[in-house]
């Protein structure tokens, strides 16, 4: 993606000043300023993903979280390779003269396509069809009927109870955002997901970000790092109960 928006040059200048800073305190302040400014960049500056789901694709969400983690480490020089952290830290005049958003876009797109390729390899493109002339195996059909599946309403209700009680404190002590106040906990977001689902309403990370008034990137990162693992944890509890 071409760096047409002025925020690209604005970010480069902030990080140039950080590189030239004469004190560690000023350097850190400028880095925080640059990272916060990047979070408020217009959505069109970022790689949008691929059709048909674009940014709502779970693979995109996971790739975006990887890209955000990479950029944060790159800015501080916490990446693989030779040299000191200072030498490896992001330099707008050395890293292909690219803004951190452009580096984010490259990493996100590369990670997305890599994950998509791995997922496709797991799917057999040529499944073997069953021979219609083959004799039936009675062992395949003379099975006891499976127990009835719990209704979706019951599952949502039980999931909400688990999140609300939060016996181990995992949901209320995990944060989607702590600053600026008020903090937003994973418990609040997961309860919102349950409530929307129980009402038959659509929810996406974009909708959740707008509801809680946080940048889309913050919600995307929270999904991959916190919310998705917590939902998996809650699912395990539900399976044990059933």
Q: What would your notes on this structure say?
A:
- The protein has 242 residues and is mainly α.
- It folds into 2 domains: 7-121, no CATH class; 149-241, no CATH class.
- The protein has 10 helices and 2 strands.
- The chain has helices at residues 7-20, 24-39, 58-76, 85-88, 100-121, 138-141, 152-165, 186-198, 205-211, 216-241, and strands at 175-177, 184-185.
- Strands 1-2 form a two-stranded antiparallel sheet.
- A hairpin with a 6-residue loop joins β1 (175-177) and β2.
- The longest helix is centred in the last third of the chain and has 26 residues, at 216-241.
- The chain starts with 6 loop residues before the first helix and ends with a helix.
- Mean pLDDT is 83; it is low at 138-142.
Average pLDDT works out at 83
Order of helices and strands: HHHHHHHEEHHH
What is the count of β-strands?
2
- Figure out the total of helices: 10
**Which strand order does the major sheet show?**
1-2
Uncertain residue ranges: 138-142
Summarize the main sheet. Answer: 2 strands, antiparallel
Give the proportion of residues in helices. 55-70%
What is the count of distinct domains? 2
Key descriptive features of the protein:
242 residues, mainly alpha, two-stranded antiparallel ribbon, 2 strands, 57% helix
Give the helix/strand layout.
Layout: H1 7-20, H2 24-39, H3 58-76, H4 85-88, H5 100-121, H6 138-141, H7 152-165, E1 175-177, E2 184-185, H8 186-198, H9 205-211, H10 216-241
Antiparallel strand pairs: 1-2
Short description:
The protein is mainly α and 242 residues long. Helix content is 57%, strand content 2%.
């Amino acid at each position: 993606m071409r760096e047409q928006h002025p925020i690209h040059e604005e970010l480069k200048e902030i990080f140039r000043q950080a590189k030239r800073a004469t004190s560690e305190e000023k350097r850190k302040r400028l880095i925080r300023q640059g990272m916060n400014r990047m979070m408020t960049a217009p959505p069109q500056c970022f790689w949008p993903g691929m059709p048909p789901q674009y940014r709502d694709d779970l693979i995109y969400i996971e790739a975006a979280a990887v890209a955000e983690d990479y950029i944060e480490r790159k800015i501080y020089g916490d990446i693989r390779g030779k040299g000191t952290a200072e030498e490896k830290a992001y330099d707008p005049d050395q890293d292909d003269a690219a803004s951190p958003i452009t580096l984010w876009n490259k990493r996100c797109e590369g990670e997305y396509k890599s994950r998509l390729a791995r997922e496709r390899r797991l799917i057999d493109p040529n499944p073997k069809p069953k021979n219609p002339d083959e004799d039936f195996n009675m062992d395949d059909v003379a099975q006891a009927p499976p127990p009835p599946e719990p209704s979706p309403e019951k599952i949502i209700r039980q999931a909400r109870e688990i999140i609300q009680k939060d016996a181990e404190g995992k949901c209320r002590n995990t944060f989607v955002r702590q600053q600026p106040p008020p903090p937003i906990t994973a418990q609040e977001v997961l309860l919102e997901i349950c409530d929307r689902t129980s009402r038959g309403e659509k929810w996406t990370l974009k909708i959740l970000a707008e509801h809680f008034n946080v940048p889309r990137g913050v919600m995307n990162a929270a999904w991959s790092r916190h919310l998705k693992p917590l939902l998996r944890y809650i699912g395990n509890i539900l399976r044990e109960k059933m």
